[in-house]
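Reader question, answered in our methods column.
A reader sent in the components of a multi-part assembly and asked whether the whole thing could be modeled at once rather than chain by chain. We filled in our standard form and ran it. Here is what they sent:
COMPLEX SIZE: two components
ENTRIES:
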Amino acid sequence: MLSKRIIPCLDVRDGQVVKGVKFKNHVVLGEIIDLAKRYRDQGADELVFYDITASAEGRSVDRSWIEKTAQVIDIPFCVAGGIHSVEVARAVLHAGADKISINSPAIENPQLITALADEFGSQCVVIGIDSTKQNDDYWIWKYTGSEATAKAAGKRTLDWIKEVQDLGAGEIVLNCMDADGTRAGYDIEQLSAARAICKVPLIASGGAGGADDFVHAFKQSRVDGGLAAGIFHRGELTIPDLKVALKKQDIRVRL
Amino acid sequence: MIAIVDIGGSNLMSVKNAFDRLDVKTTITNDADKIQKASKVVFPGVGAAKPAMSRVHELELAQVMKGLTQPTLGVCLGMQLLFTHSSEADTSCLDIVPGNVTAIPVKEDLPIPHMGWNSLLISKTDSLLLTGIQEGDQVYFVHSFQAEFDQHTSAYCQYGSKIPAVVEKGNFFGTQFHPEKSADIGQKIIRNFLSL
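And here is the structure of the entire assembly that came back:
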């Protein structure tokens, strides 16, 4: 059977890996290639590089580091940020990314999802969703790269999850913004609601503070992968330790 | 020289990078002569069967591919195209390996695409491509269609049913997974291919 995936997310700003709390106050954590190599060697199952400023600033990601990363890294990696057209997607994939993740551009132009799936196959089209709870429902947000640009997109998260699957999404990363950076655990309730209607792989994002949080997301919300950033970057939890802990709980991992 | 056949698709560089990491020279080409003269041929592919086969015919590579006698490795969609037919948009494929490629059946709790690391279960212990590979070693899959499990299957994985992971017929080999993205295990398989 398939293993649950552990996915470090490297938020990239100006060619360096950064991390903020609730999308604010970014601190530089290190160089892209160094961190990518370290995680590959530790047994990360996949990497996500997220240019957190690209969509908000209306530019696409710088691609030179994608090529360098692809030369060094022999596990799959996904690139997100500012991929607003088939042509930009093509350039990112040809530079060596295995998947592209789109968020705000998909909200602005949902047909882009279908265009990308038709051109490159659903398997490389990941939809990132930033979601918060308001008035007893979940709502999506766009342009969350900085506090100044972030705004509610006026769509219910669960409706959007259905819609993007119909349009051709091959995977969904659900980032629960209320939990992001808090280390208080993944938003199990929201992830479980998403899982119930999500037929493509679903990745949990936002809030991981320890190995138990991954256990809960895998066992209770039945997600396919757990994404985290700060907890790995700060060395609070190493990937080998996490995988051993998961295995003890009878969760299938790649050791 | 190893020829990486260029029929489009976005994993060409990933495959080339995997050989580069082993200091092995490759050329990305769709030139029939270069493909025929190569010591080994890799047939990568990402995307859908129909446009990939259209490209093969446009480039007049179908007969070239079928006539190859050197070790040839199809990766992911490249493996699927070695078969007779794919039900993905009802596509006639190269018919090098008999059999049909069909959609992975939809089942509760099995998201499609089959995406991630799954264990290899070995059905032919004498497979040269699998030298040094242990039962249970994990490799990276990402696909929505699957070949039929039969006598050409050297290794498979479980995902609802037995999904062929490695197929072999004569000098033709195929991996449903991506060895170029499967870390150390993938590299071992690439080395095995190189020593054929």
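What stands out: Residues 60 and 192 of chain A are 33 Å apart (CA to CA). The longest strand of chain A covers residues 125-134.
Send us your own complexes using the same form.
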